[in-house]
């Protein structure tokens, strides 16, 4: 799946592709060491939009390590699933809205040992970081994937 963003960095290149073109995809790049996050006893993963993509790999690796975490919360997919839709039909009976302090208070443990990983559109990331700061999460507890 490819999502086109009007002001996206890759969009101009992607728009030039034609059916049948071959695309070479590399492994993710970056120098962030995942090891301590993969074995965290309490992990909260916040993802929105295409931000779920890098989280799939992170969670796959975590499961390969026999998921030593006592709690893994991933707002979309994982052990404890909480779907929160910002746009939904009238038939949707689950949670609605956007990321909020109330959502954190209901689902985040807020322990000093909890690790939080955030990935998604800029507005989502800024909202998440603001809420985490309000709830006294330290900078060392939070990692933001930016792409």
UniProtKB/TrEMBL annotation:
Which InterPro entries does this chain map to? CBR-like, FNR_nucleotide-bd, OxRdtase_FAD/NAD-bd, Riboflavin_synthase-like_b-brl
Statement: the UniProt record of this protein carries the keyword Flavoprotein: yes
The answer, when asked if Oxidoreductase is one of the entry's keywords, is yes
Q: Which domain of life is it from?
A: Eukaryota
* GO CC list: endoplasmic reticulum
Which residue numbers delimit the Oxidoreductase FAD/NAD(P)-binding domain?
Answer: 81-128
**SUPFAM superfamilies to which the protein is assigned, alphabetical:** Ferredoxin reductase-like, C-terminal NADP-linked domain, Riboflavin synthase domain-like
Q: Please give the name of this protein.
A: Oxidoreductase FAD/NAD(P)-binding domain-containing protein
């Amino acid at each position: 799946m490819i999502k086109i963003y009007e002001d996206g960095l890759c969009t101009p290149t992607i728009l030039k592709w034609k059916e049948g073109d071959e695309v070479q995809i590399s492994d993710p790049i970056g120098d962030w060491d995942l090891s301590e996050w993969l074995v965290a006893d309490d992990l909260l993963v916040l993802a929105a939009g295409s931000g779920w993509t890098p989280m799939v790999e992170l969670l796959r690796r975590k499961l390969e390590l026999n998921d030593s975490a006592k709690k893994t919360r991933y707002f979309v997919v994982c052990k404890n699933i909480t779907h929160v839709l910002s746009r939904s039909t009238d038939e949707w009976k689950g949670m609605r809205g956007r990321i909020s302090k109330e959502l954190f208070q209901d689902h985040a443990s807020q322990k000093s040992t909890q690790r939080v990983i955030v990935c998604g559109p800029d507005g989502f990331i800024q909202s998440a970081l603001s809420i985490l700061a309000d709830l006294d999460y330290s900078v060392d507890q939070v990692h933001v994937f930016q792409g």
